[in-house]
Amino acid sequence: MACAQFYIIEEGDTLFSIAALYNTTPQNILRLNPDLDADNLPVGERLCVISATAQPVRCPLGTLPYNINEGDTLVSIAAAFGTNVESLLITNPDIDPQNLIVGQRICISQKFQEPPMCPTRNFYVIRRGDTLRAIAASFGISVNEIITQNPLLNPRNLTVGQIICIPLAPSPIEIVVNISAKRLTVYKNGSIFREYIVATGKPETPTPIGNFEVVNKEIDPGGPYGTRWLGLSARGYGIHGTNNPSSIGQAASNGCIRMYNEDIEALFDITAVGTPVRILP
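and the corresponding structure tokens:
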């Protein structure tokens, strides 16, 4: 089965933690990886988490994708995301509240939040299941450093979609873009961590080749840039979302690297300002 996105198993991972990261279910991951032993995940093994043949709902700007889990109700989902059932039904007019299907993707409206003052421009958007300890560990900093940078933050009341500012620190992440393969690969401490399908520049507006770094991060730039922007040291170029998801996997941009919105949102939250980006032909 062709795979659109992979995940490399790390120490301490469970199927539930991996599924939560990609808004999917353990059952879906097992279906895509039939030889996998759910009780013995081998560190370093590559898992398929999204099938290349899957056609998931693409959530519009201003919304978050969420996959229905066992036991979910619209009431419980609304409570988890700080919204209400009426808003969920408006955003997802085709769902049957009495017959939610495990693995079904719905879209959840986000409340607009003004980004906090952040001299580093190194923003992070809280995702479901996040803790300050996990966020700090992923960026190689301490919980106290995050709290100092965000004095109004309540560590015991993190809200999905909440924007916080992350202090700068050396990043374990490297991003490599292969133009010909239309693949973006994330390396963590030298090992493959995640892979994504991307769109790159058209022949007349090619993506620049070389070694760059992330110099700024923007939330909800909108329009053709989708929900997130990672600006590169190649002036005027960046890695961003899209309002044209059918273009992903093609030479279709004006030189930037274009991703599905849910993919750039995941990449955005693990990428710090200063992260190296290598673009190959």
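(Above: one complete record from the training split.) The longest strand covers residues 210-219.
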